[in-house]
Every structure is written in C-alpha cells, then in structure tokens.
Amino acid sequence: MNQTRPTDNPYLLLTPGPLTTSPTVREAMLRDWCTWDRDYNELVQAIRQKLVRLATSQVEDYTSVLIQGSGSFCVEAVVSSAIPADGKLLVLTNGAYGDRIVEMAQIHGIPTEVIDFGEVTKADAEALEQKLAADATITHVAVVHSETTTGMLNPIKEIGEVAKKYGKVYIVDAMSSFGGIPMDAAELSIDFLISSANKCIQGVPGFGFVIAKTSALIKCKGIARTLSLDLYSQWKTMEEQNGKWRYTSPTHVVRAFYQALIELEAEGGVEKRYERYQRNQQLLAEGMERIGFRILLPKESQSPFITSFYYPESEAFTFAQLYERLKQAGFVIYPGKISQADTFRIGNIGEVYPEDIERLITAMENNRFWLE
Ligand SMILES: *Cc1c(COP(=O)(O)O)cnc(C)c1O
C-alpha cells in the first residue's frame, strides 16, 4: 500500500487538498455510473453511513448529507440553510477560512458577529463566553477546527462546551481535519460538522459533506436562501430516495471516495492515520528547523496537517524559485496566506509517508540557493 510516489504523478502534492491520492483511488474512477441506478445509490448510502460512523459513536443522533462542489459550497450550504431569519451568527476567526464564513453570512444578509483573534492566536472559549453572556440574540456559533491559513488547531471542545452552556447551535468547519484526527461530534457538542472529499479522507475533489445532528437538521426546513445549496432538501431527497442526489452528482468522484474510505479502514482507521500525519509533521518540523527554517506557530497551536514557515532572512530568497526547484525535485508546496509575515506552507496529508518527508528535507537542504 505504501506507494510513496506513484509513477503516473509527476510530483507529490504537499498541499492541503487537493492532495496526493493513491493509485487505487484514482483507478476507481475508470467506469461510468448511472445516477438513478440502485448500484450507485447504494454506494451513496454506504458512504453516508460510513461518514456518520467515522464522526461519532452516537450514530442514532446523527445523519449525513453529501453536496456537489468544493468544501466551501458545503460551508455555504450550512450557513445559508441553518440560521433562521430571526437568528444571528457568531464567528470565531483566526484566518482566511473563518473570514470566509463571515463573508458568506454577510452575502446572505444574516446578522453576524465576529470575534477576530488575529492570525497566530488560538480561538478562545473565554472570549466566546463573554460575548454570549453579553448578547443573548446570538443563536449560532461557528469556528474552523484546523485553520489551513496557518496550520492552527482551534480548541473545538472548549468552544463547544461554552456554546452548549448557552444553548447555541454549534457549527464546525472541520474541512482539513476530519478523518485525520480522532473526534466525536456528539462529545464535542457539534450540530453541523463540515468536510470535503479531498482532504484527510484522501479522495479526489468534487463534493463535500455535512454530518449533522438530525434534530438540528430537521429545523433547517424552509430556511434555505438558495435552491442548489438547500441542506435540508438535499438531505430529504437522499433519505427518501435511497441515496439519490437532487441534481447531477459527481459519480466518478463519489466512487473514488468510497475507495478512499475503504483505504482509511485498511490503514487502521482515523487513529492510525492521525499517527502517520503526526509523524509526518514532526519529521517536517524537525527537519526544516535543523536546516535553518523557523516555524510560524508555537507547538501547542500547531496542527498535524500543514505547517507555516517564515521565509529565510536573505535578499536572495524568493518563494517562486524555491517552488520551482522543489517541483523539479518532485514536490509541490504552497504559498503563505497571511498578512503579517512572509511565509510559505507545507502540507503533509494525503498519500504521503515519513520517507517522503525525509526526501523532501534532503531536497530542501540541497536547494538552499539563497545561501550560495
Ligand atoms: C479546504 C478548506 C475549505 C474549503 O475550501 P475549498 O477550496 O472550497 O475546498 C474550507 N475550510 C478549510 C479550513 C479548508 O482547509
């Protein structure tokens, strides 16, 4: 199974989705499917059940909905379908993906409050408590679990406890963490958990999914502000028509995702995948520090999925040149996305193993053109 560098991929994607998939996940796409045939719809139902089981031990209280598009479409489906006309959303943000939730809410005319923690500070449950104590009109709380902008891991358990203490609906963008770190939606008090096919489950891009507390999802009936992204209607159709999507579904992508779920099980489940990602991230952080790079976040905020590094302090350094050289060596890395410092990012999720990270560190060491 350890296909470190499939020959049909010219480089390893060290980007946090789309990411490098296994050859068997890609091969699963080599046939066509009929969207109303039982074979296909049963595949969809199996995926929905597996997702709920991955998300919680309290399976009877949760359900799942698959939605066409990239992960943001699912976030927007939740934001635009879950908050009623007299509701108000509070977003805790410390990066571009938190900010994107705010932008979505504003476009839909949803009253929104924001607690902005800046770019390098964790979201904090105490600040949430103060806000909720001061503003009883807030009905929903949203936060990003792994803020891919920097690699920050936010404390969703503590935030969930406060949200529940005040009786709020709790929305978590777990896009780049779900499937890659153990979590139980019920224990975390999550009402809507959002992720997508091309992150830690290691499928290809094309759809996302929402794992929802059924009692919270039922309340979304009639609230949606768009037709295509109506979370409730999408769910209702899947429930009543045995896995049927409302509009054309990305059949090949769905079949590949099923294969990715089987491969997650074969790896030993989320616990084992988490161990691999942790090992990858540790090797990456240690190796990069050893050859002179500095890491943006303190260790206690760092996720095991993606790491931000400061540019080296040299006039001769450009990200474009580093990118090109590493691409030649077989690795694609990611530019930075924050305003307060010059950084770049390296992801370590996907079909990526400790040996790959060691090869990357060697390539990095041999390509320090700014020292020449
Ligand atoms: C990837 C990601 C998204 C969704 O991004 P898309 O480009 O729409 O797939 C949302 N939130 C987080 C934290 C992400 O990492």
Give a written overview of the molecule:
By secondary structure, this protein is an alpha/beta fold. The protein is 39% helix and 16% strand. A 7-stranded mixed beta sheet has the order 2-10-9-8-5-3-4, with helices on both faces. The longest helix is centred in the C-terminal third of the chain and has 22 residues, at 269-290. It is globular. The structure holds pyridoxal-5'-phosphate (PLP). Residues 16-17, 70-72, 75, 97, 144, 148, 173, 175-176, 196 line the site of pyridoxal-5'-phosphate.
Share of helix among residues? 25-40%
The number of domains: 2
Tell me the span between the first and last alpha carbons: 39 Å
Report the uncertain regions: none
Beta-strand percent range: 15-25%
Give the name of the CATH architecture of the largest domain. Answer: 3-Layer(aba) Sandwich
Mean pLDDT over all positions: 96
CATH superfamily of the largest domain: Type I PLP-dependent aspartate aminotransferase-like (Major domain)
Largest beta sheet: strand ordering:
2-10-9-8-5-3-4
